[in-house]
Amino acid sequence: MIVRAPGKLLLSGAYAVLRGAPALSIAVSRYAYADARVRNHNPTLEVKAAIPNGPWPMVNNAELNLSGQKLGLGSSSAGLVASLAALLHIRGNDLLGDDARRAILRSAFDAHRTAQGGGSGVDVATSIYGGLVEYRLSNDAPSVRSRAWPEHLIFRCYFSGRSARTSEFLTRVATFFAARKEEASTWFDRLGAQAEACVCAVDDGARSLVLAVDEYASLLRSFGRAADIAIATPEVEELARQARDEGGSFFMSGAGGGDCALYVGERQPGRAFVEAIIKCGFTEVGVEIDRSGVQAASYGGRQ
After folding, report:
1. What is the pTM of this model?
2. Which residue from 174, 164, 126, 129 is spatially nearest to 7, judged by alpha carbons?
3. What count of other Cβ atoms lies within 10 Å of the Cβ of residue 226?
């Protein structure tokens, strides 16, 4: 009765998704595993919020870490989704069915926001549905649409060596809004418009999507400089420039400041560019797109 839920990488929509703009997110082939037959006596805050009185399934999210560091693949959300799904699975529910997935989304979304004091819930939705997810908040409720993966689009993931705390960045954004509301609102209008462009680009093919997410990443880095938020280091700025020469895009996934970076393109990056990424302190993380989302599985045990 083991269930697995994938981690996630954000393509576009970071920050702007909190104000109703769409996000594009990828489910990846590293998982949190939950087993409802084994009791967990030390659940996360998210799991406690979703299942106040227990029992709490045992969770193993080692695949979402590297040498003891969180990779920023949404491990807490994946563990939450796996825990809820494990309880449904042991009761005989079909985890691939729409009813089960909607029920997990409702419970996980509310619990995640309660435990985190906010947040978009995009990690939760991606872990449930898998594949390429278009996600947005509508009247403060989650909306999820599965999108077809563009033909010839490839991605590679690199860990920066630093785990980031998204909550700290969101606090800085709130401070920016409080101090310079008009300027901050203008930035979010621009980010929101480009997030919409990214969503539209999915149907136009790999090249259009690469260009759109690269423009979003560039705009996000500019926003970070304006708000005095270290979304990207100078090294990442330079790698982003080099990626364009490769015909691709290189950017920090999600809120930035650490965790993982993504390379996306229509072809694999050249050896010299990969060497430049490694020289800047990044470590490649082997992942592929997970197309299934949360499901029953045996424990893979990848470390």
Report:
1. 0.92
2. 126
3. 14
Its sign, for the CA torsion 26, 119, 223, 159, is negative
What pLDDT is recorded for position 303? Answer: 32
Model pLDDT for residues 167-184, shown as the tens digit of each residue: 677 788 888 888 888 998
What does the alpha-carbon distance between residue 227 and residue 182 come to, in Å, rounded to a whole number?
12
Whole-angstrom distance, CA of residue 288 vs CA of residue 273: 20
Confidence tier at 255 by pLDDT (50, 70, 90): confident
**Exposed, middle or buried by CB within 10 Å (0-12, 13-18, 19+), for 222?**
middle
Query: pLDDT tens digits, residue range 213-228?
Result: 999 999 999 998 888 8
φ and ψ of 43, to 5 deg: -75, 165
* Phi/psi of residue 90, nearest 5 degrees: -70, -20
Residue ranges of domains in the chain, CATH in brackets: 2-148+288-296 (3.30.230.10), 154-285 (3.30.70.890)
